[in-house]
Amino acid sequence: MTAADNKTQGSEIQYDMSKNEIKVAPNDGSYLLDGYELVCGLEVHVELATATKLFSASANRFGDDPNTHIDPVTLGLPGALPVLNRQAVELAMRIGLALNCSVQPSTFHRKNYFYPDMPKAYQISQYDQPINVNGWLELPGGKRIGVERAHLEEDTGKSTHIGGTGGRIHGSDYSLIDFNRAGVPLVEIVGRPDIASPEEARQYVTELRQILVAVGASDAKMEEGSMRCDANVSVRKPGSPLGIRCEIKNVNSVRSLGRAIEYEARRQIVLLETGEKIRQETRHWDETDGRTHTLRSKEDADDYRYFLEPDLVPLNPDRAWIDAVRAALPMLPRERRLRLSHATGAPADGEAIMVVVERGQDDYVMSVGEAGADVARALVHVKEAFAEQGANPTVPAGDLAQMIIMETGGKLTSTQAKTVLAEIVANGGGDAVAIAATKGFEAMDNSALEAIVDQVIAEQAEAWSKYCGGEQKAMGALVGAIMKASQGKADGKAVTALLLAKKG
Amino acid sequence: MVKVSRLARLDVTPDEVQRITKQMAGMLEHFADIDALDLSDIEPMTQPYPLSNVFREDVVVTGLDREEVLANAPAAEDGRFRVPPIVGLDG
Amino acid sequence: MTTPANIHSNIPTTAAAIADGVRSGALKAVDVLEAHLAQIAAREGDIHAFNLVTADEARAAAARVDADVAAGRDPGVLAGVPIALKDNMCTRGIPTTCSSKILEGWRPPYDATVVQRLAAAGAVAIGKTNLDEFAMGSSTENSAFGVTFNPRDTSRVSGGSSGGSAAAVAAGFSPISIGSDTGGSIRQPAALCGVVGVKPTYGTVSRYGLVAYASSLDQMGPFSIDVRDSALVLEAISGHDPMDSTSIPQAPLSLQHVLSQGVEGLRVGRITDMPSGADPDVTARLEAAFDALKAAGAKIVDVEMPSMKYALTAYYLIAPAEASSNLARYDGVRYGLRVNTTDTNAMYSATRTAGFGEEVKRRIMLGTYALSAGYYDAYYGKALKVRRLISDDFARAYTKADVLLTPTSPIVAFPVGEKSDDPLAMYLCDIYTIPTNLAGHPAMSVPFGTGAHGLPVGVQILAPTLGEQVMFKVAASLERSMIAAGGAK
Questions:
Q1: Span A151-170, mean pLDDT?
Q2: Deepest in the core among A58, A242, A286, C28, taking most CB within 10 A?
Q3: How far is C217 from chain A (nearest CA, A)?
Q4: Looking at CA atoms only, how far is residue A99 from chain C in angstroms?
């Protein structure tokens, strides 16, 4: 280690997160000091939802007893040969096409390195000819993040470290290897360094996850490891050449991703501001202390000796296959948001639509609309009351529609509507009319309400004249009195409308 | 040569390094013939017989018996392969 | 000279005759087996063809064949034929070592496709034959378990790397054996031991379960006493295998019907610019082979193979490069040898250093170097382009000729130890066999008389991709001319 390295190490230790804490407002990049800008690209690995492994017929299943999904290929036994899983190719193509990539002729290479959970001591991966290239992903706000490639490769096994402290690799006594995951098909999606803030990174991963789930390629669960995200982070002054980048690994949730990028950017800025150099290296995100730590420097990275895998032949999907996969793609999250926005008038990247589409409840909202209810109200109610419901709510769309029709028809006040809906959701459905009746929410028709309004105007002549004279405060007193007289059954909006009408 | 032996995970003695280097130099000397060829327009040949799109359908076939496999392992514990402590975090 | 023909008094020597006898009920598979086991007991001590003789399993298999015949079930085209398997093909539950300490004691949990097909055809596997460690060598001296000696002269090598398989057939231990050929490893020992050896077109015989040396070059094939037996065995083991992505999707080869067809009008190519170096006794037999084919009605034509002289160098970059990757899996984690140390990295090095022999280490080092950053384009990348040149040479040659004829080996069997300290001299043994592997074409060696010291000389017939039928026609013609001349069959 050189003296310079020592200094860098030293400054890293001195750098104290608590003293350098910077308040970060969401989505505005204000955590960046002195006009630095963030340059970030994400590499996302997703496990494909196939029945079997990429190159062998063992089950691709998570959570079973160790080494129960093994075969000669999975274990790298002498003499075993890989044969490509057609469905894995199909799912990779779905991902590529959903990300606006070109699907092209591709090949497989061997990436040679030794590691106990890598059975053949090489990983079969796509190298200079990946199946999908040159696509993009559009963030909800419209910004496009480039996708350089999305290629097929095989997963490794899993090591468990025994002894030492808390299952960590350092200081363990020995390790145990389970090869159930070895050979599971992965697609690695390599994004271009177009991400300029932690918020964009979060949006990218959230959007990507929804796309992967939508096309049926993966369950894409970061917490379970079926979706893994590495971030390449560098900072620079605007207009300057790209800075030295560090790769951040071990980010296990969307929230951590943002935190890790934010921390790493700050760390790099502090280094630069104190006159230090940034070393190109791989860093490990530690969730518990909220920092990244040196894993290994790129200088002593292995020489992977890539060469064409001689046990496999080229992959060249024909036009008909690609077209069929493209034609069978389901509606993607972006289209779903636009559809809902069009139907409701709400903004496509507004909270209600974002939340409902992410939950997969937009088809449901549309069907409530088709049942005759106001779609915009349906959107609001589903967003508010269906958080626990998942993509296929138990409440029949017709039941919700009936409730909304009562609400918009003035038969339920918005407060009453919420009460009725809560009951419907709790029971997995229900007749809004009957529930309203048992709650005593009798319909108050306009003539009954008008009689009460006339009565209150007569009783509160002073307030009425002030209201007519333009004093808004007076309206509160009138409405309050009307609500009281109606024992809370009057709809606030209807009352206001009547008062306005009578004012003339 | 030391880098190569590290990549290949082979310990070679200084004697062996010398001998292998000499033998490899002999081989690479022959390579000078090839070096003289103009190969710029030649497509590399990687497969003797041109096939493409060879697939397997995505159907599970019962794999190997764990106990039979672990019986062949140098060390096993708890249904898994046991190895000495892993150094480095690569992978 | 001992020839297989005078070994078993009442048991036929060829697979075809044994299978006919067993299928008709005239012979018992168990008797056939015992005669061969007796021959092994008599001579194996001098020859060491086997790493393991599986007598018990063989007796059970032979009994099953006899039971099939007795019950009127079809026992298969190789019913009761004893077969020796090179010890680099996986046999379930039976140790498969590749003649390496690193795999000593390993019992594969699965059978190679070829092993399955042989068993399905009624063949009786009698054991695992010795080889140069991981099939790297040309003399079967690089075995962790000792040298295999040539049955024709036990002071000499049997050739390699499939020396044990060649010796097993030459010594009458089995009428058929299976070998693998990456740069000549079937044909060269066949020539040195005086038997027939065939390397079919790459992709014709499944590699599933063959422990890989160099994946784009490896191909399995038979050894036999005569040409018909090799045809018979190839018909049984060839054909598409969905477990091997490089397996050509086609029906099994159909060969036996062409053997009697003759060579009238066939064009037999003589390579005019072939790298020299064959001994005169060997060259004389090649000339005799040209004469015999001419006499049988073939036309001899001249062809040029200007890139053939680069084949050896290209091979010794491509094969080690693939091998360095193929042999990386021997890391002491899942099977085979482990040398225990303090951490995994040290374990890898200690295990591999202790488990591999010198020639294997040399090729792993060479291959690792050829693929490493900064050298790939200069070495491996160029070798792949040379491979294309050689393939193009063949393509041009086969517009003029139907087959090509060369010596199989430049020399007859050499004394044990003569070349073991000189890798380059050893590599030159494969100078005539390697180009075919690079091109992926079929080639076979047929015994064609004797050279120096009365030792067998093999002539090599080369044919274009999937040209096995024309190749076998020529082989059968050469065999007929030898018999007509009074030579030993």
A1: 85
A2: A58
A3: 9
A4: 30
Contact C334 A119 (CB under 8 A): yes
Q: Does C352 touch chain B (CB under 8 A)?
A: yes
Would you say B72 and C107 are in contact if contact means Cβ atoms under 8 Å apart?
A: yes
Asked if residue C229 and residue C338 are part of one domain, the reply reads no
Q: Which pTM was predicted?
A: 0.90
| Separation of CA A429 from chain center | 29
C-chain residues within 8 Å CB-CB of B53? none
Q: What pLDDT, in 10s, does the model give residues A248-304?
A: 998 999 999 999 999 899 888 888 888 888 888 899 998 888 888 887 665 455 799
Q: Would an 8 Å CB–CB cutoff place C324 in contact with chain B?
A: yes
Read off the pLDDT of residues A180-209 as tens digits, 9 standing for 90 and up: 999 999 999 999 999 999 999 999 999 999
Between A and B, how many CB-CB pairs are < 8 A?
131
Nearest Cβ partner of A313 from B9, B51, B79?
Answer: B51
**Are residues C117 and C218 located together in one domain of the fold?**
yes
Asked if residue C102 belongs to a domain, the reply is yes
Residue C65 Cα distances to C35, C259, C369, angstroms: 16, 28, 50
C367 has pLDDT over 60: yes
Whether residues C219 and C143 share a domain: the answer is yes
Residue C227, domain member (yes or no): yes
Asked whether residue B31 is assigned to any structural domain, the reply reads yes
Residue B78 within any structural domain of the chain: no
Say whether B61 and A156 touch across the interface (CB within 8 A).
no
Catalytic: C161? yes
Question: Is C412 part of a structural domain of the chain?
Answer: no
Distance CA(C197)–CA(C210), nearest Å, equals 18
* C325 contacts in chain A (CB < 8 Å): 110, 112, 121-122, 305, 307
Q: Do A178 and B56 make contact, defined as CB atoms within 8 angstroms?
A: no
Domain extent, residue C119, equals 4-261
Give the span between the Cα atoms of C105 and B65, in whole angstroms.
18
Q: Would residue C444 count as lying in a domain?
A: no
Residue C167 to residue C148: CA distance in whole angstroms: 8
Average pLDDT over residues C384-408: 98
Other beta carbons within 10 angstroms of residue C105's beta carbon come to 12
Query: Is the pLDDT confidence value at A17 over 50?
Result: no
Give yes or no for B1 touching A (CB within 8 A): no
To the query of whether residue C276 is one of the catalytic residues in this protein, the response is no
Which chains form contacts with chain C, at 3 or more CB pairs under 8 Å? A, B
Q: pLDDT tens across C86-106, in order?
A: 999 999 999 999 999 999 889
When pLDDT is averaged across residues C24-51 and rounded to a whole number, the result is 97
pLDDT of residue A275: 84
- Is C174 marked active-site? no
Q: In this predicted model, what pLDDT tens digit does every residue of C216-268 receive, in sequence order?
A: 999 999 999 999 999 999 999 999 999 999 999 999 999 999 999 999 999 99
Residue written as token pair 């951590």:
A256
**Cis amide leading into A367 (omega within 30):** no
Pairing of strands C124-129, A174-178: unpaired
Across the interface, of B1, B42, B87, the residue whose CB is closest to C388 is: B42
pLDDT tens track for C416-449:
999 988 888 888 899 999 999 999 999 999 999 9
Q: Are strands C196-199 and C443-450 parallel, antiparallel or unpaired?
A: antiparallel
Q: Which of C261, C294, C326 is the last residue of a domain?
A: C261
For A446-503, the fitting CATH number among 1.20.1070, 2.60.40, 1.25.10, 1.10.10 is 1.10.10
Measured CA distances, A113 to A121, A301, B6 (Å)? 5, 10, 11
Domain assignment present for residue B56? The answer is no
Q: Is residue B80 part of a domain?
A: no
Region(s) of chain A under CATH 1.10.10: 446-503
List of E strands, B9-77: 55-56, 76-77
Q: What percent of chain A has pLDDT over 70?
A: 90
The tokens describing C328, both together, are 């990386």
The answer to whether the Cβ–Cβ distance between C342 and B49 falls below 8 Å is no
Instruction: Give the model's pLDDT for residue A260.
Output: 93
ipTM here: 0.96
